[in-house]
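Ticket #4471: structure export looks truncated?
Reporter: QA, pipeline team
Priority: medium

Steps to reproduce: submit the single chain below to the structure queue and open the exported record.
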Amino acid sequence: MKSLHKTFDILEYVVLQNGRRVTPSEVAEGVGINIATCTRIMGELLKRGYLEQISRKEGYIAGPMIVSIATRDSLYKQMANAAAEPIYQLSTALTSQVNAAVMQGSTRIMLTYYFRDYYMTMPWKQFHFMDHWQSAAGRLLLSSLDDREAKKICLKELKLEKYPKEEIETMRKNGFVRFEKDDKIILGHIVRCPGFPALAFGLAVQPEQSEKAFELVKQTAVKISNNLTGSGTAY
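Actual output as written to the record:
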């Protein structure tokens, strides 16, 4: 099982570089394993098409199997496709990084995102997150759970001092969240459509942008919902 975990860690590390070439020594350091094990696993991923080797010196990039798998249809692909253009528009309008995510178990998994600086690697170091109460999408996804499960995650995994029942009930009712963090305003909205898991997105803006951002966030939620169902129901 440990070997399987290392394989996933390596694959995710390479994919997160957004096309930047990486060597086995860099990957080994990045995921915290010895270089011999890393080189062996990357060799197997190369054989299966999950990695491509540019050269011994330049290293590896994600291989064609990554794209091939992503072409297959699923609920989550439909959700990512539905959110992609509205999130691009929101990010561009506010010049802010925006991401959309779903909850799987107690883990938040990012489905799609947009940010302006193409020359950068992904501004997040993983695809899955546990800092739910620190983000708009995380708080909203907690509100999509029943109280028993949300409380368990908040107290046992997030280590909050007490279960924020009132805040979660407000988010369930309103479908959005807005709070201050590090001198910025954090905003987000949840999209609930029949037949699909809850999808939440969020971003951070300067205080002077908050009213404009609040309206654009609501519009974005409706656009995503329309793309999924045509109903216009955002929560």
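Status: closed, not a bug. The export was complete when the record was re-opened. Leaving a note from the reviewer for reference: The first strand starts at residue 51 and ends at 55.
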